[in-house]
UniProtKB/TrEMBL annotation:
<keyword id="KW-0378">Hydrolase</keyword>
<comment type="similarity">
    <text>Belongs to the REXO4 family.</text>
</comment>
<dbReference type="GO" id="GO:0006396">
    <property type="term" value="P:RNA processing"/>
</dbReference>
<dbReference type="InterPro" id="IPR013520">
    <property type="entry name" value="Ribonucl_H"/>
</dbReference>
<keyword id="KW-0540">Nuclease</keyword>
<dbReference type="Pfam" id="PF00929">
    <property type="entry name" value="RNase_T"/>
</dbReference>
<dbReference type="InterPro" id="IPR012337">
    <property type="entry name" value="RNaseH-like_sf"/>
</dbReference>
<keyword id="KW-0862">Zinc</keyword>
<dbReference type="GO" id="GO:0008270">
    <property type="term" value="F:zinc ion binding"/>
</dbReference>
<dbReference type="InterPro" id="IPR013087">
    <property type="entry name" value="Znf_C2H2_type"/>
</dbReference>
<dbReference type="GO" id="GO:0006364">
    <property type="term" value="P:rRNA processing"/>
</dbReference>
<keyword id="KW-0479">Metal-binding</keyword>
<keyword id="KW-0863">Zinc-finger</keyword>
<dbReference type="GO" id="GO:0005634">
    <property type="term" value="C:nucleus"/>
</dbReference>
<dbReference type="InterPro" id="IPR037431">
    <property type="entry name" value="REX4_DEDDh_dom"/>
</dbReference>
<dbReference type="GO" id="GO:0008408">
    <property type="term" value="F:3'-5' exonuclease activity"/>
</dbReference>
<dbReference type="InterPro" id="IPR036397">
    <property type="entry name" value="RNaseH_sf"/>
</dbReference>
Length: 357
């Protein structure tokens, strides 16, 4: 290799992102990339080559997609867990780990029959209990309103804790006429709603339970009494319940960047449950309890990811504003790719931080 080729090769390596391994022709292009990529230790990372990926779907494509990195694919096929994407020490360790990592399905047929008989209805919430949960999951099922039955009306709601226990479950009487019960997917009949709890009463009970004695303006993600709310598509559920709750307390599996598609669109709960928990949901009549359990399991899996502890992990933290000075072209160009990565911070709240609260 001649001197010029050697210099070009060295320059290319210097312009390689230490996180996603993208290479740039010029150093200033790498600096611009680092400014907008928000790489951090909270991103899903390949256990073989340590490449950072924006989502677990992107990591899955890197390992077993149509065009995977061959070395990583070979090792993952022998020692990788297909649910949490972890690389284990040996094929035997992988077998044991994967058996523990895969969840069993909820017997939705049984729970639906129990609900129809009123055996799981729990219309009272003991939100004063000292042992009450810090994290809860919520799911609603909708019937149709309006002339064509396309307007979603909340007709059933369920709240569970981290141990899959039912905290609250009830049918809900909508505030307007139901024109489509959508029985094939909801299992709801007119008689279920005839004497159901009115929407306003359901709203009040849930709001009091979530806030847990704290005024809405005072709620904060750490150190307070208000509860973390887990779900899938919670914007829609809360809208149909006519509830407001601080976004800092919401953990939505439909909007969490590591669980989204590479196109940055939401994955369905059915896909997420199958891919990351190892069982199927949403066959026939759908049960809100089943959705609560699935979203809580996904949340728990994400929460207990092991990441490097940082005092100020978010790019938006006031203490990280000094990093913006370091991103000045003249300053950043003196840094190595590893040094740039060391001051880069995440642009989303990683759920592992809930374990530190």
């Amino acid at each position: 290799m001649d001197y010029r080729s050697s210099m070009e090769s060295s320059e290319t390596l210097r312009n390689k992102c230490a996180a996603c391994y993208r290479q740039f022709n010029k150093l200033e292009h790498l600096v611009e990339h680092m400014k907008i990529s928000y790489h951090s230790g909270h991103e899903p990372t390949c256990g073989v080559c340590k490449k950072h990926c924006r989502s677990f779907e992107s990591l899955r494509e890197h390992l077993i997609g149509p065009l995977p990195k061959q070395e990583c694919k070979n090792i993952f096929s022998l020692r990788g867990c297909r649910f949490c994407m972890t690389i284990l020490e040996s094929p035997n360790s992988r077998r044991i780990h994967q058996e523990r990592c895969q969840f069993s399905s909820v017997n939705s047929g049984l729970t639906t029959r129990m609900a129809a008989l009123g055996l799981r209805d729990k219309a009272m919430i003991d939100y004063t209990s000292s042992r009450s949960p810090r994290v809860v999951a919520l799911s609603c099922k909708m019937v149709g309103g309006g002339s064509d039955g396309s307007l979603d009306l909340c007709a059933r709601v369920c709240i569970t804790d981290e141990s899959d226990n039912v905290i609250f479950h009830t049918y809900v009487k909508p505030s307007m006429a139901v024109t489509s019960y959508r029985y094939e997917t909801t299992g709801i009949r007119p008689e279920n709603l005839r004497d159901a709890m009115p929407l306003k009463q359901v709203q009040r009970k849930i709001q009091e339970f979530l806030c847990n004695g704290e005024p809405m303006w005072k709620i904060r993600p750490r150190g307070g009494k208000a509860r973390i709310l887990v779900g899938h598509g919670l914007d829609h559920d809360l809208d149909r319940l006519q509830l407001e709750y601080p976004s800092s307390m919401i953990r939505d599996t439909a909007k969490y960047p590591p669980l989204m598609k590479t196109s940055k669109l939401s994955n369905s709960l059915k896909y997420l449950t199958q891919a990351y928990l190892g069982y199927d949901v949403h066959f026939g009549i759908q049960d809100p309890y089943e959705d609560c359990v699935a979203t809580m399991r996904l949340y728990t899996r994400m929460r207990y990811q092991k990441h490097k502890i940082e005092a100020y992990p978010l790019a938006a933290d006031a203490q990280n504003r000094s990093n913006q000075v370091a991103w000045r072209q003249s300053e950043a160009e003196r840094m190595s790719p590893d040094e740039m990565l060391s001051i880069s911070r995440s642009d989303y709240y990683c759920w592992c931080l809930d374990s530190l609260a």
